[in-house]
Each structure stands twice: as structure tokens, then as C-alpha cells.
């Protein structure tokens, strides 16, 4: 008789642990930064609010992707549904940690192709980090774009963030070269350069251009890289980076953040988190 009771207790503990890793968006604004040594730096995010304790979870992001340890999997390429309108519109704003582009609801793309997921995911927004948050074999890229999606049935990012399968994010690396020929990325940078204060800037671009033709990627289960750090994210990190110039990258790094300093002073990158036994898959 004792064995069934023990099984129930263990299962309950696992369930509770999973629930604790799925924090909702805090009801009030939580101030956090990347200034290491401060009381609200990444090492203290988990104690900023009752809804940021997930930042101390076991399946956190970003991670260091060790290519020799990845597992080969036959996965479909990332593709969005066909849409007649090529350019999608949205408002670009400064969010205190960089710049973020929120696409208008009527223009959002939908994909069914996220690996290890079921259902449709809707592209809601994109933003950047400099340098990259994810590392590959211990090295950063010059930058990383994040394309944030929510599962359609949950209605929004806020409605999906505390669901185990709620979110999916595509990470696209940036590297510095002599030319910047990706039209979507250039439109994003041009919009950032035109931002003035807190006034939003209307921008149009085609996010599909950010997913390069060969389509190879890494994927793993992780979290948001900012509070509330919910472990509700299926990550897809594209292997091949977009090339851009140092001047264009500097436009992104010059964006003022919450303390008035430009982004490049402290960056907006969370330190790499332990893998804790998770499997990172790679397309093959």
C-alpha cells in the first residue's frame, strides 16, 4: 500500500515544480537591468518579484550550444503561411533595453512548423541583443535577433507565457561583414535610426527574409531570457547568421536604455545558463 502513495507524492512534486517554472507576466512593472553588481542584475532577477522566481529555474535560456553534443534530427524547415502582402507593418519603440518591433495584429504571420510542438504559432514581435545571447562553442556572435511567437489558441504573449507550450522564439545571429544586404534587417535598422524619444515609429518589413535559404537550425526547450523567465519557450536558433556592417550594428548598440546610457555600455545579454541535461537538436 505504501508504493502507490509514494508514486502519487512524486508525481505531485513534479507537477508543482513544473507549475513553478511557468511564471505569468507580473501585474506591475518590474525593473531589471544588465548592470552587473547591482541589486537588479541578472543574478538577482529571481528575487525581484513573486512572478520572477522562474529566473532560478532549471531550463533557462540562453545557453552555450556545444555543436559536438547536439543530436541530429530530421526536422522540417521553418516556414510561415503564404501571405499575399510581403511587407508587414508594426510599431517600433524603445523598451528600456533596446528597440522592439510589435507587428500589427492584422499583419501577423502564422507557422505550424516549430519542432516538437503542435498547433499554430503567431509572430508577435521582434527585438535584438548585442552581442548574441546564445553562444556556439563558447563564442558570441556580434548580435542576435529574436522573433517572438505565441501559440494561437492562447490569444497573446501574455496569455501564453505561463503555458508549457505557450511560446516559441526564433533566434537569428548577426555577423559583421563588408556589406549589409538583408532587406528586412536593413529596414529594421533604418527604423531604429529614426526613433526619437518615446515616440513609436511605423515600420514595414518582411520577417520571412530573416530566415535564410538553407534553413538549418538548433532547437531546445528553454525560457524567456528576461523576467519573468518562464520556461514556456521552444527555441529555434538559426545556424547561419545574417551579415551586416559595423556601422549598421552600431545603430542598434547606440539605442539609449533605461538609465539613459547607450546600449553598448552594459549590453542587454543575459549570461549563459546551465543546460542541466537538456538535449539540443540540430537539423540534419
Count of the separate structural domains = 1
Question: What is the molecular shape?
Answer: globular
Number of helices: 4
Determine Rg (CA atoms, Å). 19 Å
Largest sheet composition? 12 strands, mixed
Give the mean pLDDT: 90
Total DSSP E strands: 15
CATH topology: Carbonic Anhydrase II
Low-confidence stretches: 1-16
What is the distance, rounded to the nearest whole angstrom, between the alpha carbons of the first and last residues?
Answer: 48 Å
Describe, in short, the structure shown:
The protein is of the alpha+beta class and 284 residues long. It has helices at 2-20, 157-160, 183-193, 246-253, and strands spanning 64-65, 71-73, 88-94, 99-103, 110-111, 121-129, 135-136, 139-140, 143-151, 167-176, 201-205, 217-222, 233-238, 242-244, 281-283.
